[in-house]
Structure formats: structure tokens, C-alpha cells
Amino acid sequence: MSTPVVIDGRGLQPPAPMELTFAALDKLGSGEELTLLLNCQPFPLYQILRREGYTWQEQWDDGTCAIRIRKP
After folding, report:
1. CA nearest neighbour of 8 among 33, 34, 37
2. What is the DSSP-derived secondary structure letter of residue 48?
3. Predicted TM-score of the model (pTM)
């Protein structure tokens, strides 16, 4: 089992969180996942993930959106 990948984009300016997310997704194996932490919902990212076949779940806690993205 691989080490969990977490990207904390809460203090980063756009487009840095999205760029880091796509770079990390390129390195994931099939069925692996990463967690992206943000202070908002990244609706443009969701559209791209849907188009590319990724699945995701989001969970809000204390103003942070934790988005778990799984590679198909």
C-alpha cells in the first residue's frame, strides 16, 4: 500500500492547488487516491475530474473541504 498523498491548498493562490493536484494524479496508480484540502469547492476541478473518469468524495470540517480523489 502506498503512502497517502495529501495536498494542502488552503494557503495557495489559484491555479497552484489545481496544478499540484494534476501533477500528483499523474503519479497515482489505478485505484489509488489523494486528498486535496481547500477552503472552497473547486467546481472547475470537479468538471475536469468527471470528464477524465475520476471519482471523488468531499467532506467539510471547520471550514475545510477535504476532497478525496480516486484514480480510475
Report:
1. 37
2. H
3. 0.91
In a 3-state reduction of DSSP, which class is residue 38? strand
- Span 5-44, pLDDT tens digits: 999 999 999 999 999 999 999 999 988 999 999 999 999 9
Question: d(Cα 28, Cα 71) in Å, to the nearest integer?
Answer: 7
Helix axes 43-52, 16-27, angle to 10 degrees: 20
CA angle 22, 49, 19 (to 5 degrees): 20
Strand order in the sheet with 33-38: 5-8, 33-38, 64-70, 55-61
Query: Assign residue 25 a region: left if phi > 0, alpha if psi is -120 to 50, beta otherwise?
Result: alpha
What the block records as the C-alpha cell of 45 is: 476541478
